[in-house]
Amino acid sequence: MVDDIAVQALSGAGSGMVLFLVASGLTLIFGTLRVANFAHGSFYMLGAYLAFSVTRLFSGQPFGFWLALLLAPLAVALLGAAIQRYLLRRIAGRPHQYQLILTYAVTLILADTVKLVWGRDNHTVPRPEGLGGAIDVFGAPFPAYYLLPVGVGLAAAAALGLLLARTRFGKVVRASVADGEMLGALGVDVPRLNVRVFALGAWLAGLGGVLAAPIGSISPGMDSAIVIESFAVVIIGGVGSVAGALLGALFTGIAKSIGILFAPKLAIAFVFLALCVVLVVRPQGLLGRSA
């Protein structure tokens, strides 16, 4: 039983890292732009579908998945930049319900676009060569592919931490959160900064979608589940905190995975029970700050 729990926990860490990539983009966008982006799950879904198309185009080639891992998130980032530049910027300063309605409308448009282009059938993406088998963990087989999202997630967490703490871009982003108007008065192009932040958040969601594609099937509607879980992770970890998103995503992934082992029908309930506890005990999240 202990071996089974260990393997499930490792599997949960793999899926939790995918969730972290999506949630970190969401918390970055919300923390900086104050936009509750309901279309964020659509970016994740598009990343998965684009990965399917690229790997299918280069079927039989060992580099197909790796090419998808490079190109699909970039395409999603460009789409995110266009949405922020040509749609969200036009309603900046208006009440938040305008943003909610607009991003929800984008979700519906992208969902229908996916059905139009790829159909309603489920699709699968083969695991890359060398990561299709299993490794031995405590005497039990463990999918080798899960090591990839764990490694990419940890690398992304470290890179985001350095980006926000040590670079000029990160300092400007943090200054924008504190006082965007003053930052603009100092000569910084705040609208352009917002486009870059939104594109980075979309890129992270697309990257998560590519990494998730070989784990399960790709289907319309996969955006809904991930965006709900991502909002839960952001709230548990603390809005605007990348470290909090990492902690919340790992907790969510491991809790779901172990919950499946003991109570499959109630696995997701443990996550939202933890969310309720955090909201009551520490409303700003585990690593968030009080307003």
Structural account:
With 291 residues, the protein is mostly helical. It has one domain. The protein contains 10 helices and 2 strands; from the N terminus they run H-H-H-H-E-E-H-H-H-H-H-H. The chain has helices at 2-33, 40-57, 64-86, 96-118, 147-166, 168-185, 190-212, 222-237, 242-262, 267-281, and strands spanning 134-137, 140-143. A two-stranded antiparallel sheet has the order 1-2. Strand 1 and strand 2 (140-143) form a beta hairpin. Helix 1 packs antiparallel against helix 9 (242-262), helix 2 (40-57) runs antiparallel to helix 3 (64-86) and helix 2 packs across helix 7. The radius of gyration is 19 Å and the shape is globular. The N and C termini lie far apart (44 Å). The model has no long low-confidence stretch (mean pLDDT 88).
Short description:
This protein has about 290 residues and is mostly helical. Helices cover about 70% and strands about 5% of the residues. Helix 1 (about 1-35) runs parallel beside helix 5, helix 1 packs across helix 8 and helix 8 (about 220-235) packs across helix 9.
